Amino acid sequence: MSYHITVIERMILESLAQQDKNIDELSACTKLDKAILNLVIQPLTAKGLVQVVDNKFHLNKSLTKSMKKELHSDTNVQGEINQITSTCFKTRNTKSIYKLKKVFMNKSEEQIFNAMLKNLELFIEGVSNKTDAIAEKKIIFWGETNYETLTNHSLSC
After folding, report:
1. CA dihedral defined by 98, 126, 5, 64, rounded to 10 degrees?
2. Residue 6 to residues 82, 100, 154: CA-CA distances in angstroms?
3. Which of 22, 62, 130, 140, CA to CA, is 20 to 30 A from 147?
4. What letter does residue 50 receive in the DSSP assignment?
């Protein structure tokens, strides 16, 4: 069975990972309309990822290792990144910040850059994610590559 999931489905799964919720609690947390939630949850229950007990949704605690591996597969992560970045750039607003820079770095500058990225990662990992308002969760992404990698990939497609 394929477990390709959308950003909305992933948001619901992340919310339920915090705690089980009924439809009202899930709606308040995600800021999604209940009708939309009911539509989105159906495929999650059909795939066995979400279960309903006493009108509360919860993650299936007995997912197999292969199911978990599929959810975190490169294909799913790539799909999530594609959805996030394309949506971000299509819906830019004054609260959003996106930067893209093309720079040449010598070895020393690259070492400084990598150290700064490591500090950023440590900071982000240390930030508390304990909140019910999953809709307010910040989406932060960064990365780097070089033109050679991009062009080689483009030419191989």
Report:
1. 160
2. 10, 25, 25
3. 140
4. E
